[in-house]
Amino acid sequence: MANLYPTEPLKLWKKAKELREQYYMNYARAKEKGGIRWSGSAWALDAIPAGLGEDVYSLTGEPYAAAVAHDRKFAKECMDAAEAYGFARDLCSYMRIYWGGMHLNKYAFGGEFPKPDFVFQTQICCSHSKWYQHVAKEEKIPEFYLDVGVGPYKDMTDARLDYVANQLHDGIEFVQKASGREFNDELFIEAVKNEMRSTSRWADICALNKVKPAPLDEKTMYSLYVLCTLSKSSKWCADFMDELYEEVKDRVARGIAAVPNETIRLMTDTQPPWSFLKIFRYLETYGAVSIGSLYTFALEGIWEEKADGTWGGRTLPWNKGVEIKDRATAVRLYADWNLSKPQWQHFYDPRLKSDMMLRIIKEWQVDGVMLHLNRGCEGLSVGIMENRLAIAKSGTPVMTFEGNMGDEREFDEVRTQARVDAFMEQLGVRRQAA
Known about the structure:
metal-binding; oxidoreductase; iron-sulfur; 10 strands; Benzoyl-CoA_Rdtase_bzd_osu; alpha/beta
């Protein structure tokens, strides 16, 4: 393949892998050091448990299950165990993987499945509360659920914001009772600030991909945004995102490409089939780079429309003169920050997602869109065919392929590759000689 642009590996790649591994080992070994373990989703508002101390560790279910999904044999073993217990195969594949590992008492990173001290969970996806209700029942641990389904952020009112903020105050009372520890407001406020730093900065990093050539490709981005899904309110995550931003900004300045033969730019949607990420490398044989997706950008990225009308990372409150010095202020700003998350908006209306996808197509200079009809996630796939119609109506070529983020039995590699070949022909590109 003829290289059009210079390329080089990410300098922070090794550090990202080390931080991820350390996260999972810290959770497994927390009890050896007298620490606290809790479990919930990647969307759980983890700055709340952070107020219990500096030795509090979480296991966020979706990224854990995605890690398992890459190990096809263990993933199937977990899902078989969940199905043998009586759970239907068409439920969330992440949920089935987590449940199966818990029932097998096997942890993907070695040893027995670590038991959490409590569940702390948000509810916006159709599966979230039921997922951890079963965990709490089986593990015999206390549970707390935060309802954040108050409607799209564009329609936010003080009453809706108060509804979520008041639940966060209840959550603070819950984690104190569940852990037997006093809540430290200073640690909580610091965690809120860290989360805002992490999620705003990840959006800034994704915005750097608007340029040609793209400094990052989506397959690489999956291994970077995941740190925010693990522990976005931690200092180590916020600091890493700042480091990463500087490196990616430097790549842009020097014209360093993620895909050296970049010819066309694609966008995807929802979680990929984790056990078949090599499909992204296949795209590169056509000179195609996936610049990301609403999922990759906004699963954890927090965005806003800038003065020039383009999308960028949301401005941090203290950069607008708003100081966070007390619990009440922190709770309210924290609720508002999360309720603005782009990936929460389309649960209410697929048109909101279509509008965001069309914005990405325009600002990131996208030539074509690949939509994953993901049977493994009802929440992020809801309205996807309406999204397809909106993209097609805009004049942007779009293809669909069927699969499942966590269950390889739902993905046909040969058929998907054939659909990619046909789509590349539609886009007017040919496979490039090696």
